[in-house]
Structure formats: structure tokens, C-alpha cells
Amino acid sequence: MIVVHKDLRVPMRDGVHLAADAYHAKGDEPRPALVALSPYGKELQALALTMPPQRRPSPLWDGCIEAGDIARVVKEGYVHVIGDVRGSGASEGEHIGNYNAGGVPLGQDAYDFIEWVAAQPWCNGVVGMIGISYFGSMQIFAAAERPPHLKAIFVSGGHFDFYETTYHGGVMWFMPRAAREGRGGDSGWAFTHRHKSRMLETYSEEAVRQRVAERLADPDVAAWPNLVHVLNYPIHHESWFDIVTNHLDGEWYEEQNPINLASNIDIPVYLQINQGRGWTVDGTLELFDVLKGPKKLEIGPYPPMQTRPWVDEHDTMFRWYDYWLKGIDNGIMDEPPVKVHVEGSRQWMSGEHWPVTPVEYRSLYLRTRSKLAFEPEPLDAEHAHAEGFYQAPLTVVDKVEKLTWSTEPFQSATSVHGVGAAHLYAAIDQDDTNFILRMWDEAPTGKRQLVTTGFLKASHRELDERTTEGNPYHPHTRSVPVEPGVINEYVIRLYPFANEFKPGHKLVVELMCNEPLVDEHNSLLPPDAFHLPVGRAVSHTIYRDATHLSRLVLPFASSSR
């Protein structure tokens, strides 16, 4: 039997009250509590008690049911406490923009919430946290505030660098719209009337008008009806309006970037993320490097999206919490700190750091006749003629054009683990475009699975001082128009991955400026998980000759030579 405490009122230090539900087993003895906080609504999370877990592409998969398996939490001897953040659901207060609640940092509210939970008669004063995605990011905000009774956290699928969550390589991603507005398989934020735009609260009407005009002058934005609507009617889409009007990285995103706050965390942290969610894998690895206390990292198997309601990873989560919250020595801390599921082989590997195996960077060169080889093209541009593709806007065509290169079948198992880069020598006939690169593992049967992706808006091609061979970084702090017809080198970051190409398999790479709306990978994602297409007609010319060494730079496992 589950005891339910409905509509608890949790006081914040400024007098605002947050709403919460608590679930525990029958009996009066106090237990450790697992806290879940989000704007998605505690009533939606209660569906975990009545709805069987759904997987994509089920139309009943709802990306916002993320607080965990209530019945399992109770069965394992914990109290499950699910709260609505300020300005959402049944909570009081205002919510302003992203990760900012009425001028109060979300971490501050999480601190007060956790300390209140610890003082309740059904809690023994020991608290952890639970939930994926937004719930996972909330755990980092909370832990960075160091509430005394928060003893450990388990973060799955969190979003950390918020600019990279919304602009992949400078290319706008639509999933935050789904999370806010409830489009494409997400119920969205459970906001009442108490939500405001940070842009509208911060800047003058004239400054906002100028920013809106600037964004509408971008042909990519102007060709997308929803963005035109958002920019003209921001009061109905306050958070999405903030994202659309801030297309460059900087203070707007950095002031509440969880990675910037994570150096203040000293409690044990378990980080879990699945392959196929490149930007999130990248952020998880960056966060892992910042953490100073006891920590674990698990990069799980493809496909990328867990079930909704979320019930995955609970076995590992309870091992973690049984050790840190109940004091049960179950051996979890005797295991290596990093655990990775290697795609292709479908085997787990573990080690002391990421990548878990020694690697060396090697180049695979784009060649004529759609070949990808370890030796560069010997012919010059006069003989190894450039190739290209013309992409008309998706307003007038349905087809996404692309170029493809592939290796010969590998003769032996070949492993690639880490972060990679694509160096493209290209000229375009406009002042901007997208470069979208996908790398696949293709079996002899033709069946293929995505290995990794890379995105770069051409006007964001600048690199910064963090860049090393095979590991590029772009600051994304300014947009520099491309001079049409000029050949530039574009270095695209390939998100982290771990893959073993079996004998007979090929490595295939695709280049395009718009991604397909449906393919083997996209069908596993929510419907809104695609990127803003190029809104103008663009001709792309790719040079891959003895002078222009267009190539992939990949981290091959040393044993794969």
C-alpha cells in the first residue's frame, strides 16, 4: 500500500509556497527521501502509477513524465517527493524565462525544498534526488547550493550548457519549444498565469523591437511560421521567445549554466546518459570533468530516448542510493568510475576515465567517387573536381539533398571512442548555411545505425583556444557572414561516441544543410527533435583534393590499428 500526501505546501525563504506530493510505504518509520522538481506538473508525474512505460515511436510517449517509477521508489524503501517549481503547477510565485524563477535562482528554491523535506516526520533527514532531463538539471542546481541534508544525486539525461541545448553548433534546435509548449509528444510546462519572458522583463520596448527585427531579418527564421508567430506574440511563448531572440552564446546563457555552478558540488554524483544524444553526451562529459567529489559516469546504449514514464536505470540508481543514503556496502564504489556501452559490439567497457581505452587520432579523407580512405586524395583540384549539392528551401521542395562518402568494409573489428572533427573545405553562394554531418555504421545488409552527429552554422565557424586536434570548440559569441564563393575551412565538432565497426561493416558519412524529417534515427526521437532548416536556396561546393584535405579526424582505439 502506498501512502500519499497530496498538495503539501513547502515554504520558501521569501514567503512563496511550492506545491508537492509525497509517496511512501505504509508505516510511521521515517525513510530517506528522493526529491523530484520540475515545471512539468506533479499530476502528470503521477501517471507513472497507472501508465505502462512507452517507447518511441509510440504516440503515447510523453517526454515530460520524467520523475521516476513511484511504485518502485516506494518499494525500495524511499519517500518519493514530487514538487512543482515556482510559477508552475500548483506552486505560487512567478517564473521568468529559463532556469530563473521570479528573480530567485532555482537552486535556492531547491535548497529550501530539500531542507523542508528533511524535517518532515516521514523523512529520516537523508535526501537524494530523482528524475531525468529537466529534473536532472535541477539536481545540479540544487547540489551546487549545498543543502546540508542532500547527500547524493543520480542525474540521467540532464541538459547542462543551455546554449548547446538550444543551438547545436549555432543551429537552432526545436526540442525546447516542445518542452515549453507541449508540442510533438510532450505535455509541456504546467504554467499558470505566472510566467514571464526574461527579455521583456529586462530590456526596454525599443531594445526588444530591435532584437525582434534582427531575428526576422534572418531568412531561416522568417521562413518558419512558428518563429514568426513567437516573435510577434511573445507573451504566449515567453521562454521560447527568449531562446529565439538570443542566438549567440554569452552572459544570457552562462549566468545559470549548471556546468559553471558544478565546481561547488562536493557530494557524490552519478551521471548517466545514452548514446545517440550527442549534445547531451558532450555536456555530461564536461560536467563530469568539473565535479570534484566522488563521481561515476555511465554512457548507456542506443537508442537515445528512455521510456516515458521513466523507469530505466532504476537498478543502478538504487545501488547508488542504497550505498550513499542507506549505508549498504554493495560494492558500487569498488567498480571503475567510468562505464561505457560500446555500440556495434554491444558490450560494456569500463575504465578510470573517458575514453576508457587508449586512442590515437587518425584522418579519414574525403575522396572522389564517394570514397573515404586513410590516404589523402593525390590529385589536385583541376583533376579531383569539386562536388556539391544545391538545396532549395523546404518551403518549395520536400527532398533534403546530401553528399555521402564511405570506407571500404573493415577487415577486422575497428573501434572508435571519443570526440571527433570533420574538416570541410567548402564554398557557398550565400552568406550563411548549415553544415549537418551524420556518421553511420552500415552492415553488409545495408542496415545502419547512427554513430554520431555534428552541426555547424557557417557564420559560426570561428574556433577558440580550447581547440585541439580532433576536438574543436566554437565560441558561438558572434556571427560572421560568409563571403559568397570563397573557399573556407569549416571544422565541425562530432559529438562523443563509442562504436566498434565489425568486420564487413562500413563507416558512412553524410553531409547536408537540412536534416531529413524522417529516417532510421529521427523516428526514435520526439517529432519536434529537428533543427531549423536553411530558409534560402544555397549551392554548396565541397573541395576534397590534394590541396584541400577535407577529412574526418577520429579517435581510433590504439588496438584497432
From TrEMBL:
Boundaries of every Xaa-Pro dipeptidyl-peptidase C-terminal domain copy: 318-553
Keywords: Hydrolase
Pfam families per the UniProt record, alphabetical: Peptidase_S15, PepX_C
Transmembrane region(s): none
SUPFAM superfamilies on file: alpha/beta-Hydrolases, Galactose-binding domain-like
InterPro entries assigned: AB_hydrolase_fold, CocE/Ser_esterase, Galactose-bd-like_sf, Xaa-Pro-like_dom, Xaa-Pro_dipept_C, Xaa-Pro_dipeptidyl-ppase/CocE
Protein's name in the database: Xaa-Pro dipeptidyl-peptidase C-terminal domain-containing protein
